[in-house]
C-alpha cells in the first residue's frame, strides 16, 4: 500500500489549464488551496509513513467556467535541510533520523538528544489556514509557514512560541463570520499536567 500512495509528486510552478469534463458554473470564481504530502524520498533515504512526506501545495483557480492548476513544494527549513544534505535529516511522525556515522561521538550524542527532546519539524503538510489576510501551511507543531496564495511561494516561517505560551497548536482552526480565527494549543510546562490554550487571532477590523 505504501508503494502505491507514497509516490513522489512534481511541482507545476506555472499555471496549467485543466481539462474540464462536464461544466463548471460561470459564477464560480476564486482559488481553492490544498496541502498534503508530496515528496516521500530524498536521495537514497525514504520516509516510513505517509504522514511524513514533504509538503506539496496545490491551487485550483476557477474563472468563467475554466480551471487552472499549479503546485509547489513548501520551502520549509526541513525541506531545505533535506535537499541540501540529499537525504532525510529531520525526524518526522513515523521516521526517526539517526546520526550521521561520519560525525564524531559528541555530534552523534547531540543528535540523539535532539531526537529525544526535538525541535519539531516545520514540514507543514496538513492544512492551509488563514490568520487575518495571511495564509499559512500548518501541521500539529509550533511552526507554521506563510505562503503566497497566488504564487504558492513560501514567504517565511512563524513560531507560535514567539507570540503565545504553547508548545503545539492544531492544524484546523475555526472561523467566525467576522473573519476572526480561533485555535487551540497545548502548553507543556515542567513536570506538571499539560494545559490547553485557546487563542483568537482577530480580523484586521475587529
What are its keywords?
12% helix, mainly beta, 206 residues, single chain, metal-binding, iron
Give the class from helix and strand content and strand pairing: mainly beta
Largest sheet: 4 strands, antiparallel
Mean pLDDT: 88
Helical segment count? 3
Residues in helix, %: 10-25%
Q: What is the 3D shape?
A: flat
Number of strands: 14
Q: What integer value in Å does the Rg equal?
A: 19 Å
What letter string, H or E per element, gives the SSE order?
HEEEEEEHHEEEEEEEE
Strand ordering within the main sheet: 1-6-5-2
State the oligomer.
single chain
Organism: Characodon lateralis
Family: Belongs to the carotenoid oxygenase family.
Cofactor: Fe(2+)
Pfam families: RPE65
Give the helices and strands, then pairings.
Layout lengths: L1 H4 L6 E6 L12 E10 L1 E2 L2 E2 L7 E10 L2 E8 L3 H9 L19 H12 L10 E5 L2 E5 L4 E5 L6 E6 L8 E2 L4 E2 L5 E7 L7 E7 L5
Antiparallel strand pairs: 1-6, 2-5, 3-4, 5-6, 7-8, 8-9, 9-10, 11-13, 12-13, 13-14
Pfam family, one: RPE65
Cofactor: Fe(2+)
Family: Belongs to the carotenoid oxygenase family.
Amino acid at each position: 500500500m505504501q508503494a502505491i500512495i507514497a509516490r513522489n509528486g512534481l511541482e507545476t510552478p506555472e499555471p496549467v489549464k485543466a481539462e474540464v469534463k462536464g461544466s463548471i458554473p460561470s459564477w464560480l470564481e476564486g482559488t481553492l488551496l490544498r496541502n498534503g504530502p508530496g515528496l516521500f524520498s530524498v536521495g537514497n533515504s525514504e520516509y516510513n509513513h505517509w504522514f511524513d512526506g514533504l509538503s506539496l501545495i496545490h491551487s485550483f483557480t476557477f474563472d468563467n467556467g475554466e480551471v487552472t492548476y499549479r503546485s509547489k513544494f513548501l520551502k520549509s527549513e526541513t525541506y531545505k535541510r533535506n535537499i541540501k544534505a540529499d537525504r532525510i535529516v529531520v525526524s518526522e511522525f513515523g521516521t526517526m533520523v539517526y546520526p550521521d556515522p561520519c560525525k564524531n561521538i559528541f555530534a552523534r550524542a547531540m543528535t540523539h538528544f535532539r531526537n529525544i527532546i526535538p525541535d519539531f519539524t516545520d514540514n507543514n503538510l496538513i492544512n492551509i489556514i488563514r490568520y487575518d489576510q495571511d495564509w499559512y501551511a500548518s501541521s500539529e507543531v509550533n511552526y507554521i509557514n506563510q505562503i503566497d496564495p497566488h504564487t504558492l511561494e513560501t514567504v517565511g516561517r512563524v513560531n507560535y512560541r514567539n507570540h503565545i505560551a504553547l508548545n503545539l497548536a492544531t492544524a484546523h482552526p475555526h472561523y467566525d463570520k467576522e473573519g476572526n480565527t480561533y485555535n487551540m494549543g497545548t502548553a507543556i510546562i515542567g513536570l506538571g499536567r499539560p494545559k490547553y490554550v485557546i487563542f483568537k487571532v482577530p480580523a484586521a477590523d475587529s
